[in-house]
C-alpha cells in the first residue's frame, strides 16, 4: 500500500487505485463496449461517453433507487384503496371498510401491490437500461395511479369502472402507445396540444396529489369533506368520528380548543402517549416528523430526504402500545404485526395477477375516457421526462432534438405499461428521480440496470414496505412533484441535475411551473386556469383536460373567426402575445419512413451507378470498335 506522510498506508489512494482497476477492466470488456464506457473499444455507432465509468454508474444507480424507493409503498397504498378484486355489495362503498373480511382482503391486495410495484419497476428499469443504454428508471407513475384509484375505479370500487376493466384500459393503452411510437404519431400528439395546457396539466395533477396527501384514505388526515356549506373542511379527528352524512369531523378538528394541547408537547414521547379520543396524534406526527423534517433536509438538497422522512415516521409508528402505532391490538393490527415480524420473506401475488377483464358491461364510455386520459398524460410524461433526462446526459442530437434509440425507448416504456396491467398496476412511466442518478454521474444504461436490480431485491423485503403507515407517506404525496420536467415540482421537492457543462440545475416550488403558463393573453390563461382548477376540484384528471381543451377551442376559435372575417381590424388586447399553435408537427419523420427513403435513395444511387457503368461500358465498346477500325484501316493501308 502507498504510505502516507506519517508512514501509514493511504487508504484513499489505494481505494482509488482499486476502483480505477475495476473501471479499466470493465471498459475493456464487452460490457464497456456495449454501454460505451470511457476507454472502451466501442467502434460502432456514436463514440464513447465522456466520464462514464463502471463504478460511477453503480453509484448513480443506487442513488436513483434511494430517491425512488418511496413509490413501492405509496403506489401500493393508493391502488389498494380501490379494493382490487375484493367484493363488497354495500350500497355505500365507504362503509365496506367496516367489514372485517373486506378489510383483510384489502390488506392482502396492498401486500400484492407492493410485490407487483417492486417487480414491475425492477424489470422495466433493467430492460430499459439494457435496451436503450439510458440512465432512466421506470416505475408506476404518480398522478396516473391516483387517477386510476380514485376516479376510474373509486374507493372500494365506487367508481364507474371495475378494477379488472380499468386494468384492461391500461393494457390497451400500452399497445396503442407502441403503435403511436412506431408510426411517429406520439410526437405529433405531444406537439398538437398547446404547451400552456400541458403545463397546466402538471400543476393540476400536483394539486390533486396534494389533496390526496392531506386526505384520510392515503394521507395524514388534515382535510375532509365539509358537506353542502363548504366542500372541504379541516380534519384531525379519528375516522370513526367522521359524520356519515357530510364526511366532516363532528368533534376533534385541528382547531378544536379542547385538543390544542397536542401542539404543546414537550418531546416526542409526550406525543406517543397522547390518548385523546378527539384527535389523531398521527396527524401531528406526520406534520412534524414527516413534513417539516423532510422539508428541512430538502433545503440542504439531501437526496434521501423522502426516505428519511418516511423512515422516521414509520419507526416511531412501529412500537405497539402507543397512540400512533400502526399495529393496534385489533384483528387487522395483529395481522399486520405478524407479517411485519417476518422482515424478509417472499410474498407471492395472490389477488392482483392477471385480473384483466374484457367484459365491459355498460361502462364503454367510461372505459374509452380512461384510455384517452391514460394515453394523453402518459405520452406527455414519458416524452417530457425522457427528453429532459437525455439532454442532461448529453446524447441529444442537436440537429433534430431527438436522441439515440428513442423509438425503442418509447416502445419499451409502452410494453411495460401492458405488463404492469397484468400485475395489477397503473401505467408505468419514466421517473424524473432518475435525475438524481444523472447528477451522481450516471450516463449509461448500467445506472438503470442497478436501479432495477435494487427494486427486484426489495421484493423480499415486502414486510417492511407493507408496514409503512399512510401518515408516513402522506407528506410525500404533498411534496412530490408531477414528473413532467426537472423544473416542474410540487411544493418543496428539489432535485439536482447536471447539464453538459457540469452546472447544477435545481428545481423549485410548484409556483415556478405556474409561471410557465402564458398569462399575458386570456385565450391561453383562462383555459389553463380551468385545467388547474378542475383537476383537483372535480377529483378527475380527465374532466380537467376535457374542460380546458373545450374552453381553449371555443374561445380561440371564436376569436380567430372574428379576426379573419374583419381582416385583422378586431383583434383582442395582447393578441400578439398569444402562444403560437399549429396542428402540423415538427421533428424527424418516423423511423420506418426514414428507412424506406434511405433504401430508395440507395437504390437510386445504385441505379445511377449502374447506368453510368453501362454508359461507360458502351463508350468503351465504341472506343474499342473505333480503335479496331483504325487499326484495320492502318493495316490495310500498310499492305
UniProtKB/TrEMBL annotation:
Entry-linked InterPro entries: Azg-like (IPR045018), NCS2 (IPR006043)
Q: Which domain of life is it from?
A: Eukaryota
Q: Which UniProt keywords apply?
A: Membrane, Transmembrane, Transmembrane helix, Transport
Where is the secretion signal located? none
Show the Pfam families listed in the entry: Xan_ur_permease (PF00860)
Where in the cell?
Membrane
Q: Which GO terms describe its biological process?
A: adenine transport; guanine transport
PANTHER family reported for this sequence: PURINE TRANSPORTER, XANTHINE/URACIL PERMEASE C887.17-RELATED
Q: What is this protein called?
A: Uncharacterized protein
Q: Which organism is it from?
A: Claviceps pazoutovae
List the top taxonomic levels of the source: Eukaryota, Fungi, Dikarya, Ascomycota, Pezizomycotina
Amino acid at each position: 500500500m502507498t504510505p502516507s506522510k506519517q508512514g501509514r498506508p493511504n487508504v484513499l489512494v489505494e481505494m482509488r487505485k482499486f476502483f480505477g482497476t475495476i473501471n479499466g477492466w470493465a471498459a475493456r470488456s464487452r460490457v464497456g463496449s456495449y454501454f460505451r464506457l470511457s476507454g472502451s473499444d466501442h467502434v460502432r455507432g456514436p463514440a464513447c461517453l465522456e466520464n462514464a465509468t463502471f463504478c460511477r454508474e453503480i453509484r448513480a444507480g443506487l442513488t436513483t433507487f434511494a430517491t425512488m424507493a418511496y413509490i413501492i409503498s405509496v403506489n401500493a397504498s393508493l391502488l389498494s384503496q380501490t379494493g382490487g378484486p375484493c367484493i363488497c355489495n354495500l350500497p355505500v362503498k365507504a362503509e365496506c371498510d367496516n367489514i372485517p373480511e373486506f378489510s383483510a382482503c384489502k390488506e392482502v391486495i396492498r401486500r400484492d401491490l407492493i410485490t407487483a410495484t417492486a417487480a414491475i419497476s425492477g424489470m422495466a428499469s433493467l430492460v430499459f437500461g439494457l435496451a436503450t443504454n439510458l440512465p432512466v428508471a421506470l416505475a408506476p407513475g404518480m398522478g396516473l395511479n391516483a387517477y386510476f384509484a380514485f376516479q376510474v375505479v373509486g374507493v372500494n370500487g365506487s367508481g364507474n369502472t371495475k378494477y379488472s376493466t380499468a386494468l384492461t384500459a391500461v393494457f390497451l393503452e400500452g399497445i396503442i402507445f407502441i403503435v403511436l411510437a412506431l408510426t411517429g404519431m406520439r410526437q405529433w400528439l405531444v406537439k398538437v396540444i398547446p404547451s400552456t395546457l400541458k403545463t397546466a396539466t402538471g400543476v393540476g395533477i400536483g394539486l390533486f396529489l396534494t389533496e390526496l396527501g392531506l386526505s384520510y384514505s392515503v394521507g395524514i388526515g388534515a382535510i375532509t369533506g365539509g358537506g353542502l356549506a363548504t366542500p372541504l373542511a379541516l380534519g384531525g379527528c379519528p375516522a370513526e368520528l367522521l359524520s356519515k352524512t357530510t364526511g366532516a369531523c363532528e368533534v376533534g378538528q385541528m382547531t378544536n380548543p379542547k385538543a390544542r394541547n397536542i401542539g404543546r408537547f414537550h418531546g416526542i414521547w409526550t406525543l406517543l402517549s397522547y390518548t385523546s379520543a378527539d384527535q389523531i396524534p398521527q396527524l401531528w406526527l406526520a406534520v412534524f416528523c414527516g413534513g417539516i423534517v423532510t422539508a428541512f433536509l430538502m433545503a440542504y438538497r439531501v437526496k434521501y430526504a423522502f426516505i428519511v422522512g418516511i423512515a422516521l415516521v414509520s419507526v416511531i409508528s412501529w412500537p405497539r402500545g402507543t397512540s400512533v402505532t400502526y399495529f393496534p391490538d385489533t384483528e387487522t393490527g395483529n395481522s399486520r404485526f405478524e407479517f411485519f415480524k417476518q422482515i424478509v420473506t417472499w410474498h407471492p401475488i395472490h389477488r392482483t395477477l392477471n385480473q384483466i377483464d374484457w367484459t365491459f358491461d355498460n361502462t364503454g364510455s367510461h372505459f374509452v375516457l380512461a384510455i384517452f386520459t391514460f394515453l394523453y398524460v402518459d405520452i406527455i410524461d414519458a416524452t417530457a421526462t425522457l427528453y429532459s433526462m437525455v439532454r442532461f446526459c448529453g446524447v441529444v442530437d442537436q440537429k433534430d432534438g431527438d436522441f439515440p434509440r428513442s423509438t425503442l425507448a418509447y416502445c419499451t416504456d409502452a410494453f411495460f405499461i401492458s405488463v404492469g396491467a397484468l400485475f395489477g398496476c397503473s401505467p408505468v412511466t419514466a421517473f424524473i428521480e432518475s435525475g438524481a442518478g444523472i447528477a451522481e454521474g450516471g450516463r449509461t444504461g448500467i445506472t438503470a440496470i442497478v436501479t432495477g436490480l435494487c427494486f427486484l431485491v426489495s421484493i423480499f423485503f415486502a414486510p417492511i414496505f407493507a408496514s409503512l403507515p399512510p401518515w408516513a407517506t402522506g407528506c410525500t404525496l404533498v411534496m412530490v412533484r408531477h414528473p413532467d420536467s426537472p423544473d416542474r415540482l410540487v411544493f418543496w421537492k428539489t432535485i439536482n441535475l447536471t447539464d453538459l457543462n457540469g452546472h447544477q440545475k435545481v428545481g423549485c416550488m410548484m409556483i415556478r411551473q405556474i409561471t410557465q403558463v402564458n398569462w399575458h393573453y386570456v385565450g391561453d390563461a383562462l383555459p389553463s386556469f380551468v385545467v388547474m382548477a378542475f383537476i383537483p376540484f372535480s377529483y378527475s384528471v380527465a374532466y380537467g383536460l376535457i374542460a380546458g381543451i373545450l374552453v381553449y377551442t371555443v374561445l380561440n376559435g371564436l376569436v380567430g373567426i372574428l379576426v379573419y372575417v374583419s381582416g385583422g381590424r378586431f383583434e383582442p388586447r395582447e393578441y400578439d402575445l398569444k402562444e403560437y399553435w399549429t396542428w402540423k408537427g415538427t421533428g424527424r419523420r418516423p423511423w420506418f419512413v426514414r428507412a424506406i427513403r434511405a433504401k430508395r435513395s440507395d437504390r437510386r444511387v445504385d441505379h445511377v451507378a449502374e447506368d453510368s457503368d453501362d454508359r461507360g461500358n458502351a463508350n468503351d465498346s465504341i472506343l474499342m470498335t473505333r480503335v479496331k477500325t483504325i487499326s484495320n484501316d492502318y493495316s490495310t493501308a500498310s499492305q
